[in-house]
Write a structure and sequence with these properties.
- This protein is an all-alpha fold and 147 residues long.
- The chain has one domain.
- It has five helices and no strands.
- The chain has helices at 2-22, 41-57, 64-87, 94-120, 125-145.
- The protein starts with a helix and ends with a helix.
Length: 147
């Protein structure tokens, strides 16, 4: 069981790392993404402004930065939940272990959805609210499971 849990945690860790890399995580303004290698800073800023204006044209769409902040918060929450599960897993009965496995599948599914939104670069506020609600539901399920 511990090996299965470890494998699932590693898969989720890889998914989180991949999602973070997709959104250019940790890059500062002076660093470049692959497509921007030969461009000057003013040209990059101009392109970023154009992208921002294009995103603003879509009514109900969130700004890229807001979306990324929200997704990073959710990734952090998932990471904390996984850590809590790992700490409490020691002598867990088989039925609770089965429930935890389902919870981990749900988390992986949510991470894949987040990755898709990050890949497209846009999400509606409704999509973000739905994702936050699903996160709250998962947290409640986890707290019920740990009782």
């Amino acid at each position: 069981m511990k090996r299965i849990f470890l494998a699932i945690v590693l898969i989720i860790g890889v998914a989180a790392t991949y999602s973070f890399a997709l959104m250019g995580g940790g890059m500062t303004e002076g660093q470049h993404q692959h497509g921007d290698m030969g461009k000057g800073a003013t040209e990059q800023k101009h392109e970023m402004m154009q992208k921002g204006e294009h995103m603003m044209e879509h009514k109900g769409m969130m700004m890229h930065g807001d979306m990324m902040d929200g997704m990073m918060d959710m990734m952090h929450q998932m990471s904390e939940m996984m850590h809590d599960m790992g700490e409490k897993m020691g002598d867990m009965p088989k039925d609770k272990m089965h429930g935890m496995s389902g919870m981990m599948r749900d988390m992986c599914s949510e991470m894949n959805k987040m990755s898709g939104m990050m890949d497209s670069g846009m999400a509606t506020e409704q999509q973000m609210n739905d994702m936050h609600n699903r996160m709250k539901e998962m947290q409640e399920r986890m707290s019920d499971m740990m009782k």
